[in-house]
Design brief:
The chain has two domains: 5-57; 66-279, monomeric porin ompg (Porin). It starts with a helix and ends in a 21-residue tail after the last strand. Helix content is 20%, strand content 45%. The protein has 331 residues and is α+β, with helices and mostly antiparallel strands. The chain is elongated. A hairpin with a 4-residue loop joins strand 11 (226-235) and strand 12 (240-250).
Length: 331
């Protein structure tokens, strides 16, 4: 009997290759299972929704449907202000979420109503990128802002950005200011979580060629979902405000930092409201200067920049550079 050594070697190699292939398939199939059952890959809750073993299992943009409501009151540019706001946030897909904002404000005997929407991509370990837009109005004045927004998470810091366009429309024209401006609106912000339950923030906003700087603090109390808020703002034309408030978060029990990064983004409505307020402060200052130079032309009534009313302005009779103005109040 003749034995061919080459045939034996080929059969051995073939058998070894088959065994290695089976082993490789077994490793590939069991590796995800091992990774998923590895305690090191589980979140604090220990359930499968917190796995981060791959891109498809990274944390979702919005962990669950959630909501928040709040009240903030105080001084808004020499006017008493009361602001009631709320938001609801829900997942659109694993990587995308949507948030709806609403606001009602009572300032200087004026009622403001508005709403906004956010469509965003987010990885809670990295940041957020999205589009946002909103509208706010009261009798005689309408305003909106729309643009792109983003957040970047770096340890205990959150850096924010908004860039877009805004518009304000007054029902009646005035000779001393553009009553239908459409201009750039931008905001940069930085939040620092001193503790997981305590946020300190600062932001700079440019809106309608005016500037605002704001400082904020928010503390989530030991009472589940209940937080206390405070803010101070200063801007061009003597604009300022201070507000104290309370906020309640609906949803799972989370730290304040996790609520902001895994549930709801920042509401757009305060930015729109204060953009209108600082432009109103410019309206107020320029209106007073105009009326001082045109005695008998009219008067400015109301509190601060939110409630100012132009009672009467005489146009061409007083100054031929301006068109005639009807004696109709600017509400």
């Amino acid at each position: 009997m003749t034995i061919h050594l080459s045939s034996i070697k080929f059969k051995n190699v073939k058998a070894m290759t088959f065994k290695l292939g089976v082993l490789a398939v077994f490793v590939v199939l069991t590796a995800p299972v091992h990774a998923q059952t590895n305690p090191a890959t589980l979140g604090e809750s220990g359930n499968l929704s917190h796995f981060r073993t791959s891109a498809t299992l990274r944390p979702p943009a919005v962990e669950e449907v959630n909501a928040k409501i709040g009240y903030a009151g105080g001084n808004m540019n020499s006017s008493e202000g009361h602001n009631f706001d709320g938001s609801v946030t829900f997942p659109v897909s694993r990587q995308f979420g949507f948030q709806a904002d609403a606001l009602y404000s009572r300032i200087a005997n004026q009622d403001f109503y508005g709403g906004a929407g956010h469509l965003f991509w987010r990885n809670p370990d990295i940041g957020l990128v999205g589009l946002a837009g909103g509208y706010l109005g009261r009798s005689g004045v309408d305003t909106f802002q729309v643009g792109a927004e983003g957040e970047y998470y770096l340890g205990s810091f959150t850096f924010g950005l908004f860039a877009g366009v805004g518009s304000i429309s007054y029902a009646n024209a005035a000779p001393f200011i553009d009553t239908n401006p459409t201009r750039f609106v931008g905001q940069i912000s930085a939040d620092y979580y001193v503790l997981d339950e305590l946020r300190l923030g600062v932001s700079y906003t440019t809106a309608f060629h005016n500037n605002l700087v704001k400082g904020e603090a928010e503390y989530q109390t030991p009472i589940r979902g209940l937080a206390l808020t405070a803010e101070v703002t200063a801007g061009d034309h003597g604009y300022d405000d201070w507000l104290l408030g309370v906020r309640y978060y609906f949803g799972s029990n989370k730290s304040l930092r996790d609520r902001h990064r895994r549930d709801d983004p920042r509401s757009l409505m305060p930015q729109i409201l204060q953009g209108l307020g600082v432009y109103g402060a410019e309206f107020n200052r320029k209106g007073k200067a105009y009326l001082a130079a045109h005695l008998g032309a009219g008067s400015l009534e109301g509190g601060g920049s939110y409630g100012v009313v132009l009672e009467r302005v005489i146009g061409r009779e007083e100054n031929p550079l301006y068109p005639p103005m009807p004696p109709v109040p600017i509400d």
